[in-house]
Amino acid sequence: MRAALYFVVIWMAACNSPGDHGNGVDPPGDGHDLVTELDGMQSQGTFLLGQRLDTVGHEAGYHTNFVTRATTADGQPVAVSFDGSAALRSGDHRGADRFFDGMLLFGSEGSQLRIVSSRGGYDVALYKVEIKLSGEWQSICDAEGDEAIPLAGKWQHSGYHEAAAGRFSFACTGAVAFKCSLWGYLAGGDSSSMAWRAHQACTRMARGDYCASGHPHTREGTQIMIYDLVGVASPPPRHFDGVKNWPPNVDRRFFEAAWGDGAHPASCLSRLRWQSLPTGPVCEHDELRDPRLDTGVRFCEDIDWQPGSDPTGAILFNESRYTDLSLHVWSRGPDQVSTVQGFYEMPDVIQPFPAIGPYDHVRTDGIVLRWLRPDLDPADFETLRRYGRAGDLVVAGMSQPPPGFDDLGFEGYARKQRIGDGIALNLYRNASTGDYLSTTGTPAADYELQWTIGYVLPPETSD
After folding, report:
1. Which value, to the nearest 10 degrees, does the dihedral of the CA atoms of residues 116, 119, 122, 127 take?
2. Are residues 201 and 335 in the same domain?
3. I need a labelling partner for 160 at 20 to 30 A (CA). Which of 21, 253, 333, 399 fits?
4. Of 170, 191, 207, which residue is a domain's last?
């Protein structure tokens, strides 16, 4: 059974002081039962501390954080600080002690919040945190009932976790700093410890923050498989298997990146988690380059990922699915087809239908989903299939295939309704040749619109 990465705390004897309200009684248990065993279905996201917490606070360069000054529910001034693996302490009271119920905390920029102990134990505890807006207390997290976990120090907007004496922070349900903690990467309070370093690497990995800049390259709800060299997850294989066939198997996960700690970008990037994120340089510097555009990028699958053998200093590793793929328009004689089959990124070209013969690449088309995240309703999507008849291949919706065509296999998914930057994937027919073509672009004048299949992402979108 995988063990959580516990932060070991040496407790110091402390004297009671005014505001201690007598001796505290530790909650039953250490709270480590909140930590869940990794199972390969970890759902990551884009927010570091929470959708609201990532945007509030006025301390330049930092997300909102808190000082040690506090007031109990009955108005007594006390000191409160981070403690243990992920808990608060005030005098002899620590963790999920009801002493914290109704306590007022003060933010680094003067804000005031109220907390209630939710659950956990003396070493790992969750709290409900509220802020007063328009005269009413409201959850500082994204939804009423969400919980928050305390973290030592404070977080820069770049996503860097900074040790800061007398400061602590919160991360809400759904945010990656919360998730990483309950995945077993408990940062604790020692910024030099492997626990702290692994938690930092986890937050970079969970957000797809390849550049260590605070900018995520992922979408909410995407699932990843985690490996590490610290004992929380399984260790990585010596070598990760690369993609051997295109398009990649939709049911498999493939190696994505290796992650270090601190302010370092990913130490090795095999591919991006989402193909529909913008192409071009991943980072504003040369430390990490986009493997889709630069053939000089190190081939990560060839590195021996074992302790002592990895020169990159990586701590965590992850695999993910090819959750989306670009459609490309190919032509052969009178037949034009827009499909995820085949690969075209010069100098690398994989023919889409080698059994038929060579096709010429025409252009890049829209981007389709290949895998539906658990939070998506399949009823909102049209399944795209590849259809064929003599001399004509076309991708169309399964609910309305072109007449007289045979079903040749799965291509992806399109939304039934337009959302955000979605663009129409339309089905056309060439009045002269009879060729069917589905595309997001505008075909030649001979092609007449038949119907709209659904909506896909445009090339190189960030939404």
Report:
1. -40
2. no
3. 253
4. 207
pLDDT, residue 271, reads 80
Residue 448 pLDDT = 97
Residue-wise burial string across 347-382, b where 16 or more C-beta atoms lie within 10 A, e elsewhere: eeeebbbeeeeebebbebbbbbbbbeeeeeeeeebb
For the segment 83-99, what is each residue's pLDDT rounded down to a tens digit? 999 999 999 999 999 99
The shares of helix, strand and coil residues in the chain, as percent rounded to the nearest 5, are 5, 35, 55
Instruction: Classify residue 198 by its DSSP letter.
Output: H
Angle at 112 between CA 109 and CA 114, to 5 degrees: 145
168 close to 152: Cβ distance less than 8 angstroms: yes
Range of the domain at 137: 32-207
The predicted-structure confidence for 133-162, as pLDDT tens digits, reads as follows 777 888 989 887 899 999 999 999 999 999
CA torsion sign, 306 to 308 to 311 to 313? positive
Q: pTM, whole model, 2 decimals?
A: 0.85
Using an 8 Å Cβ cutoff, are 246 and 343 in contact?
Answer: yes
Tell whether 193 and 48 lie within a shared domain.
Answer: yes
Would you say 343 and 349 are in contact if contact means Cβ atoms under 8 Å apart?
A: yes
Nearest to 210 by CA among 260, 163, 175: 260
User: Is residue 183 domain-resident?
Assistant: yes
Interior/surface letters 192-225, b for 16+ CB within 10 angstroms, e for the rest:
eebbbbbbbbbbbbbbbbbbbbbbbbbbeebbbb
- Contact residues for 442 (Cβ-Cβ < 8 A; gap 6+): none
Residue with tokens 């529909």: 276
Counted domains in the chain = 2
pLDDT for 1: 40
Residue 281 is predicted with a pLDDT of 54
Domain annotation covers residue 462: no
CB-facing half-sphere around the CA of 136: CA atoms within 13 A: 4
- Do 41 and 174 lie in a common domain? yes
Other residues' Cβ atoms within 10 Å of the Cβ of residue 403: 8
Which of the residues in the chain have pLDDT under 50? 1-21, 279-280, 292-298, 461-463
Do the beta carbons of residue 181 and residue 195 sit within 8 Å?
A: no
Whether residue 48 is contained in a domain is answered as yes
What tens digit of pLDDT does each residue of 316-359 get?
A: 999 998 889 999 999 999 999 999 999 887 777 889 999 999 99
φ, ψ of residue 426 to 5 degrees: the values are: -105, 150
- 218 domain-assigned: no
